[in-house]
Amino acid sequence: MDPSIMLFLAQDGITNGAIYTILALALVMVFAVTRIIFIPQGEFLAWGALSMATVEAGHVPGTLWVLLLAGGLVFVLDLWSQRQRRDHRALLRSAGWNVAYPLVLAGLLSLLPLAALPQAVQALLVMLVVVPLGPMLYRLAFQPLAEASVLVLLIVAVSIHFLLVGVGLLIFGPEGSRTQPFSEAQLELGSLLVGGHTLVVMAASLLLIGGLYLFFGRSLYGKALRATAVNRNGARLMGISPALAGRLTFLLAALIGVMAGLMFAPLSTVYYDSGFLVGLKGFVAAIIGGLGSYPLAAGGALLVGLLESFSSFWASAFKDVLVFTLILPVLMARSILSHGVEDDE
Fold it and tell me: What is the mean pLDDT of the chain?
């Protein structure tokens, strides 16, 4: 392997590692706040990428109809839960976000010349369609079971994953899609040619990580999520709604997933079920961080990206096997170094 090939593989590994990093951060965040191992995180990546490909082709994405259906179900559920208290203000908010917003967005998408829009506007429309599905998913599937055990929440997450994969096949079909890169520029660094989209991926990942840092460190809602992650019961006693924390966390997770999909789609062909494999690599990085450490998860994501890139050169048929095998020594080391706790303790 000559140095030019090594640099190319390192660039590819760092680019993929940047995408795995934000996915890992989302998984750690969701688990810390809600105790949910969010298996469907990859579906937001796939739906974001495929919705972008649909918009670039000039068609209304099928995820819009999922948004309309999910919003209607959430409103009916809120209406049922408020049948005794009759909190009209809460019902008006629910109707606005879950019924009026999807309908207005549907009318807007039907009127706009989607294929002729600038790429940034297309990406914004995709986020407006797919990201709200995150809190809706939490309200429908996880909020009624918020106090259940981690195992029950994991079973529900796996079930939702299979449901979303089936819905993805229904609305997108079995064919894969690839979107246009956000930049066609080329930057020469010695013998290394760096693509413009690679720089966009790196910049977007750094901006997203910096934005999350400021959100959790400076904003009131971010501090509320941190308090919920530290002590759910204590946060509840301080007036922080666990339901609001869960919906906000899923909103951020969906935003991260869609942004990852928009950045990943120009790099590789995305199918309706591609999100699971990509999300699973982010999960490996999150496991390296112990599902609790953001810096370790980010470092694990870069390690996963580099291992995948270099193993694709030496043994391309086994690159995924090598990546997922990485989790075994990590789990063994954590098992040896951790202190056992008796069940009654």
Answer: 83
